[in-house]
Amino acid sequence: MNDRPISFRVGTDCADCPIRHKAVCAHCDADELVRLEQIKTYRTYSAGEVIVWAGDEMDFVASLVSGVATLTQTMEDGRRQMVGLLLASDFIGRPNRSSVSYDVTATTDVTLCCFRRKPFQEVITNTPHVSQRLLEMTLDELDAAREWMLILGRKTAREKIASFLAILARRNAGASDLGPGIDIQFELPLTREAMSEYLGLTLETVSRQMSGLKRDGVILLEGKRRIVVPDFDALLNETGDDADGGMLA
Amino acid sequence: MNDRPISFRVGTDCADCPIRHKAVCAHCDADELVRLEQIKTYRTYSAGEVIVWAGDEMDFVASLVSGVATLTQTMEDGRRQMVGLLLASDFIGRPNRSSVSYDVTATTDVTLCCFRRKPFQEVITNTPHVSQRLLEMTLDELDAAREWMLILGRKTAREKIASFLAILARRNAGASDLGPGIDIQFELPLTREAMSEYLGLTLETVSRQMSGLKRDGVILLEGKRRIVVPDFDALLNETGDDADGGMLA
DNA sequence: CGCCCTTTTGAACACTTTCAAATCCCGTGG
DNA sequence: CCACGGGATTTGAAAGTGTTCAAAAGGGCG
């Protein structure tokens, strides 16, 4: 019902983990990592696979080690809205609640670091480093959700696309150079349909607006999935936000 | 810059507090309450007053004791989207971050229980009962934000209005009777304009849809602000959600 | 009683959706 | 190596929903 493990890789050392310093375990010391090591298991899912369905029981919580996953809500009549876009180091599941509220889907191949629910709840209770990190991450997600609400509620289709691309560009570039004159490139981890579910649009509108941004030279497409942003400020100018941060004043 | 106290009421006992068992202090024992008492101050704001502006520094965090407040984001050109609707017991501010991301506005007369930022951060660090309660509350807010995202991204104007009224009805009725045959009544704490900012609509559309729901007998208006819901299921049927919870099967 | 702000209503318009069909792209198999 | 198949994407045209601009009606408070 709730798990479709494709493969297991047990015994991987937390010290070598690519998300060691960003995930829920970020603040842990060596002793605390040992506790987590004892209750963790890796699972992998392939692109397109559903990790859990809304309403199902999930006997674990997890950190997303690699890949991209989504949280999606579905209405009676099939209308769908994505409500979470999970990248490396993001947390899946809610302590003290075993039933899941949203469909969780792997949109690329995904590796999860899963913690058995019961013992993880004890860790939360006894390890302030973990619960405090989880609070930080949840507050960040809440901020992201609120930025997303502005996009959904008030932006035009073109602004929505530009905003989405800017968010991806920022997350992919990390803290590195987003200045003018530097080409930013990244892979789109979502289909046009998934983008439409993120942005509250139809996939046709997404396609049209992508074409529009390409036509206007704001983005270049290499194949269908690789995006090149020749001028990040130009992209920001399309988002409707305070793009240039008052550089003109 | 950041505070416009209208009046103070010092020395009020936490034991008598109306939000004692729902706010961030809910899990605290007597000793822990003493610590909070030492750093708290009450402030009141009158309807319409801005509590803090986005970007301002806030030297306190707070629990909303009574009244209704909103979090709102504003774009360059004046488009506005509400991203938080704060009712009694909700928490305002973010630990470890003194600058505020959204305009916080009192939409009715409001009383806050404010905690000085610095000492509150110590409480967070040293008092698991507080940090764990704050985590719970933040997770609840995140869930609410995600439900809201579905409303903004995928619902029609009529469904948005119905969903909003259903949310208010549920919060006001508390755990009590929402069954059929029981009239639910509540006061609208928001103007049409504030509703439009909540729902990503124009105020004209809000007004039209309210009229439509009234015309169809889904709601009754007593004055402009008091709403009567003669049949809660009928309202739910307008939300687009799985209204009757499978009662028909 | 009158003023002002909120709310309602009307009509034309704009943007996104819907429905339909063509095109592209990639993996597969001949 | 190239043709084929099928999902993903793009493009077109018509239709619909919500917005915009405008004006009237309603309500509360001095």
TrEMBL record, chains A, B:
It comes from the Bacteria. Keywords: DNA-binding, Transcription, Transcription regulation. InterPro entries: cNMP-bd_dom (IPR000595), cNMP-bd_dom_sf (IPR018490), Env_Response_Regulators (IPR050397), HTH_CRP (IPR012318), RmlC-like_jellyroll (IPR014710), WH-like_DNA-bd_sf (IPR036388), WH_DNA-bd_sf (IPR036390). SMART domains: cNMP, HTH_CRP. Residues 24-141 form the Cyclic nucleotide-binding domain. One of its GO terms (cellular component) is cytosol. Residues 155-233 form the HTH crp-type domain. GO terms for molecular function: DNA binding; DNA-binding transcription factor activity. This is Crp/Fnr family transcriptional regulator.
